[in-house]
Amino acid sequence: MVHLASVSSPKEGPKGGFKLPNRRKSTVPGLEHIALEAPEEDEYSTSIYGSSFAAQDLPSHEMPEKEMPKEIAYRMIKDELSLDGNPMLNLASFVTTYMEDEAEKLMQEALAKNFIDYEEYPQSAEIQNRCVSMIARLYHCPETGDESTNPIGTSCIGSSEAIMLGTLAMKKRWQNKRKAAGKPYDKPNIIMNSAVQVCWEKAARYFDIEEKYVYCTDERYVIDPEEAVNLVDENTIGICAIIGLTYTGEYEDVQEIDRLLRERNIDCPIHVDAASGGFVAPFVNPNLKWDFQLEKVVSINVSGHKYGLVYPGVGWVVWRSPDFLPKELIFNINYLGADQASFTLNFSKGASHVIAQYYQMIRLGKRGYRSIMLNLTRTADYLSQQLEALGFIIMSPGHGRSLPLVAFRIDPDDQYGFDEFAIAHQLRERGWVVPAYTMAPHSDKLKMMRVVVREDFSKQRCDSLVTDIKMALSTLTEMDKASVERFNKHIQEHTRARHGHKKGKVHESMQDNHSLQATSGKSHPIC
């Protein structure tokens, strides 16, 4: 603590300035003599665009020597960011693009709070615990009344961190059992659909786990339960099942995987990746069994910043009980003389997104979430009908059997001279981001497009999109073969330029022998 009596008052110096009181000389090399220069006259005396800063390049490699006025710094950065797309027209992304003013106000008021500082911000920690409890009960986690066997979970930066934690917990638990039995524990593997999001490949590669894939076909995009269970061996740490496939929005049959494991008496846990579907399925399809109602499901992750309706930056992971989270992964933070458990990969982070999640849960309640998700499902079904009428093949089940998104592709019988990537590029020129992808490996290099229906995607905006898709088809259809070839070449060059790839050069990540992208050309959809 600093005592006021010990602080020296500054003495007036020449020309009305102040000189610092004598200080002990620094013993750190390079800090023996520090010259404190007097501030120079501010160069900002006219409008922002009449200042000298408006005629200069913004610093990009080295921090500038001098400061600039706050109004100019703000405006210059704002102008540069105007080149970004409009988030509301980005139909590639699942992340939330709308929140109520009250939620934004709460987030702004909490921006300076470091969530990990439990002693300073105890209520933020308490709010996280409430969210974990609500999510666990939403997923039918059994209540035993015993704190030592109650569900346990944590907030994360997003589902990527949550998946890392779930994978790491399965690996450590498997290793501990192998060690106790005196068996080798150096070759763990995990079973998953080849259509998994890239963070699963990251988790396997970062934690030295072999990936065992159940490959898609040109007609089946979800995991095949029988094939998945057949891949299990003594080194399998778990099976990943997805509620809300990134490509088509489909729900994988977790119940059948659970049944086969129990029927064959196989000791193998299931982790459910409900990043996208965890806040949809319970409200739109409540009879679907995929969560802790199933015996083999030991952990679930969900993204709060997707259909959890919070701006990007929050995810959750929940375990059935502390038995499935090995103690060596838990670190204790001293809080009011007691230890508070921490088991995230990240340490410091803002509290605002956790608070925003709590706001949405108590503001909307189950009925509010159900109303929103049903509206989104209806809008997605309406869009499917409109696209089907235009001749597209719809790949997403819809009608509440999948996420509120529409995956579609060109009917090969139509013999167009262009593909889905050309349509996507035409729509981008109109402001829409409707991505085209190459489907997961072993699906005969199937091309597809996908529209994610989010909370702010109204029916009116949906009709505008359909109108622009019609215009894109008309424009491309009117092109002759030579024009289409030039257009496709333009798309390829444009894409390379946007990502900084030199013409004809293969990116380094495509030259390795590890990832599905390198070995099969798989594209990873935006989440």
UniProtKB/TrEMBL annotation:
Compositional bias of kind Polar residues: 512-527
Question: Which reaction does this chain catalyze?
Answer: L-glutamate + H(+) = 4-aminobutanoate + CO2
Q: Where does the record place the region Disordered?
A: 1-25, 492-527
Quote the InterPro entries the UniProt record gives: Glutamate_decarboxylase, PyrdxlP-dep_de-COase, PyrdxlP-dep_Trfase, PyrdxlP-dep_Trfase_major
| A Pfam family this chain is assigned to | Pyridoxal_deC
Bias (Basic residues) occurs at 496-505
UniProt entry keywords in alphabetical sequence = Decarboxylase, Lyase, Pyridoxal phosphate
Q: Which cofactor does it need?
A: pyridoxal 5'-phosphate
EC number from the UniProt entry:
4.1.1.15
PANTHER family on file: GLUTAMATE DECARBOXYLASE
Q: Which family is this sequence assigned to?
A: Belongs to the group II decarboxylase family.
Task: Tell me the protein's name.
Answer: Glutamate decarboxylase
UniProt source species: Lithohypha guttulata
